[in-house]
Design brief:
By secondary structure, the protein is mainly alpha-helical. The protein has six helices and no strands. It is elongated.
Length: 151
């Protein structure tokens, strides 16, 4: 399980760095420091509050919508809800798709900020989705499924 969390954290750190086209120096040498700094920065700056665009949803680039829809499909196709190993594999598949959303991000401005506000709770759920506690995995699954429906 800790391998999954480490992989997820690394993928997320790289995705956060690459998605906004920001330069990152020596990410492989300073991985742990950058992971902590970027995650903390995003959590502090956004507070995960999603706001609408004058009462309407923000427009997202097609690649983002495709990635979120792929994550929904992965969740909908998941059936082995009584296996910790299945939740680990589910988490791996979701992380791969999640990282693609960041890699293909071309959004700018407030729409981009709101996308991050939507995505941060997803990244937070990856830890509990691959937990060693089956009940915690199941609860995280349900929470993530509800969150993805909001997109």
């Amino acid at each position: 399980m800790s391998t999954i969390i480490l992989k997820a954290t690394l993928v997320l750190a790289i995705a956060f760095n690459c998605s906004c086209k920001k330069q990152s120096k020596n990410i492989q040498d300073e991985t742990q420091i950058e992971i902590t700094e970027k995650t903390d920065e995003l959590h502090l700056s956004s507070k995960n509050t999603i706001t609408l665009n004058k009462g309407k949803r923000w427009n997202a680039n097609p690649e983002t919508t495709e990635g979120i829809n792929n994550m929904k499909e992965i969740m909908n196709n998941f059936t082995n809800k009584s296996s910790l190993k299945a939740y680990e594999l589910l988490t791996e598949h979701l992380i791969l798709e999640f990282s693609k959303v960041f890699e293909k991000c071309t959004m700018k401005g407030e729409a981009h900020n709101q996308l991050h506000n939507f995505l941060i709770p997803i990244s937070d759920l990856f830890t509990t989705l691959s937990s060693s506690d089956l009940k915690e995995c199941q609860d995280s699954y349900e929470t993530l499924k509800k969150h993805l429906k909001k997109y």
